[in-house]
Design brief:
The complex is a heterodimer of chains A (115) and B (113). Chain A has 115 residues and is mainly β. Chain A is 0% helix and 58% strand. In chain A, strands 2, 5, 6, 10, 11 and 12 form a six-stranded mixed sheet that branches. In chain A, strands 3-9-8-7 form a four-stranded antiparallel sheet, with no helix packed on it. A two-stranded antiparallel ribbon of chain A has the order 1-4. Chain A is globular and about 45 Å long. The N and C termini of chain A lie far apart (41 Å). Chain B has 113 residues and is an all-beta fold. In chain B, 0% of the residues lie in helices and 58% in strands. The chains are: A mainly beta (115), B mainly beta (113).
Chain lengths: 115, 113
């Protein structure tokens, strides 16, 4: 069965400090993994994606994520938070099942950035 | 380049009234199309998806329905809104043959009074 767990519903950091948003997944197949960001009253925007190439994936706005199969994790990181990073972040897992693809969205992690 | 449009951006409706939310995609052909609902403080719930004109799959039984009258047009409807229909509705598209990544519209904030 497929699932995705975002371990923190809220994360608060100070501007200029590192960001870590945690995501664990389970999948019966070789999954593709994604991180999306959502600013208030906006749609979701793709940050980065892992599709079985390099395990360290770089995305937009200085974010990156590392796929660790042994830990079934895909944590999102950024070395230095900016005020504009305050938003909600969604981890997504997608894999191919018989007859098509299955996608699961995590419940989201809200990132707060303090000045 | 591809763009996706949703309207209206906000909507306030009384209980029992009908609903029609529209989503159109430009710059691509034969997209997969999706409707999601996002309740306050919660993740995304997939409501409907479509792989082609007139082909609608429902993920959650409810009083909402969806239609795809044209290749790049996806409509979410209801005959009688309930209080529980309040939320943020998002339309998205992906390329045919894959459901990720998805590209989202800016959403419609629906408030039921």
């Amino acid at each position: 069965a497929q699932s995705v767990t975002q371990l923190d519903s809220h994360v608060s950091v100070s501007e200029g400090t590192p960001v870590l948003l945690r995501c664990n997944y389970s999948s019966s197949y070789s999954p593709s993994l994604f991180w999306y960001v959502q600013h208030p009253n906006k749609g979701l925007q793709l940050l980065l994606k892992y599709t079985s190439a390099a395990t360290l994936v770089k995305g937009i706005n200085g974010f990156e994520a590392e796929f660790k199969k042994s830990e079934t994790s895909f944590h999102l990181t950024k070395p230095s938070a900016h005020m504009s990073d305050a938003a909600e972040y969604f981890c997504v897992v997608s894999d191919q099942e018989t007859g098509g693809f299955k996608t699961i969205f995590g419940a989201g992690t809200r990132l707060f950035v303090k000045a | 380049s591809q763009t996706i449009h949703q309207w209206p951006a906000t909507l306030v409706q009384p209980v029992g009234s009908p609903l029609s939310l529209e989503c159109t995609v430009e710059g691509t052909s034969n997209p997969n199309l999706y409707w999601y609902r996002q309740a306050a403080g919660r993740g995304l719930q997939l409501l409907f998806y479509s792989v082609g004109i007139g082909q609608i799959s429902s993920e959650v039984p409810q009083n909402l329905s969806a239609s795809r009258p044209q290749d790049r047009q996806f409509i979410l409807s209801s005959k009688k809104l309930l209080l529980s229909d309040s939320g943020f509705y998002l339309c998205a598209w992906s390329v045919q043959g894959s459901n990720q990544p998805q590209h989202f519209g800016d959403g419609t904030r629906l408030s039921i009074l």
